[in-house]
Design brief:
The protein has 192 residues and is mainly alpha-helical. It has a single domain (44-182), classed as Orthogonal Bundle (Transferase(Phosphotransferase), domain 1), CATH 1.10.510.10. Helices cover 32% and strands 6% of the residues. The protein is built from 6 helices and 4 strands. The chain has helices spanning 53-56, 65-81, 99-108, 121-133, 144-152, 174-182, and strands spanning 2-4, 13-15, 21-23, 30-32. The strands form 2 sheets. A two-stranded antiparallel ribbon has the order 1-4. A two-stranded antiparallel ribbon has the order 2-3. Strand 2 (13-15) and strand 3 (21-23) form a beta hairpin. The radius of gyration is 16 Å and the shape is globular. The protein starts with a strand and ends in a 10-residue tail after the last helix. InterPro entries: Kinase-like_dom_sf (IPR011009), LRK10/LRL21-25-like (IPR045874), Prot_kinase_dom (IPR000719), Ser/Thr_kinase_AS (IPR008271). This is Putative receptor-like protein kinase. It holds the Pfam family Pkinase.
Length: 192
């Protein structure tokens, strides 16, 4: 059996007395067999801005352990940037409205000076791995074991992944996402 958390975000990662991270808040979590390729759910779970696309629409793929990989990628981008991934106060047509888009643009242009005056290797690694994890199609995301390998390895071995759909120039999901969030009501689990 394995656990799908469904709400990986900065607020749910706590540090113990030795600064060892611990995942908290398993209220939305679901236990499922490792041999299942997907998890049946009847309602949205998680926090807007961290939710994998397949949690919102099955046209993006099936819900699986890769859904938590997406959320973990968004968490890494927030850690690297020191800011929320979606900024409702930014202009709707601004790439700064959706931080992953802004990061992708800078990394693809090798314009690292705008991300940080002296971007540390760790920040660059978090950005590159985070962008790998937020690929829209779940089959394009790495497994969590691969994510760990990327984080433990050298940043020199990492390449900029393909542009996530939500980072395209014509797509700024922030305004719609926040409107969508305000209309969400109950969340329930499909009976098996």
């Amino acid at each position: 059996m394995q656990i799908l958390h469904f709400d990986i975000k900065l607020h749910n990662i706590l540090l113990d007395i030795d600064f060892i991270p611990k995942v908290a808040d398993f209220g939305l979590a679901k236990l499922y067999p490792r041999d299942n390729n997907f998890v049946p759910l009847s309602a949205l779970r998680g926090t807007i801005g961290c939710i994998a696309p397949e949690m919102i629409s099955r046209s993006f793929g099936v819900i699986s352990n890769k859904s938590d990989v997406y959320s973990f990628g968004m968490l890494m981008l927030e850690m690297a940037g020191g800011r929320r991934n979606a900024d409702p106060d930014a202009a709707a047509n601004s790439s700064r409205a959706f931080y992953p888009s802004w990061v992708y643009e800078r990394l693809s242009r090798q314009d690292l000076g705008e991300i940080s005056v002296e971007m540390h290797e760790l920040e660059r690694k978090l950005c590159l791995v985070g962008l790998c994890c937020i690929q829209v199609q779940c089959h394009d995301r790495p497994a969590m074991s691969e994510v760990i390998g990327m984080l433990e390895g050298s940043v020199d071995g990492l390449q900029l992944p393909s542009r996530p759909f939500f980072c395209d120039d014509g797509h700024t999901p922030v305004v719609g996402s926040y409107h969508f969030c305000s209309e969400l009501n109950g969340v329930s689990e499909e009976d098996d």
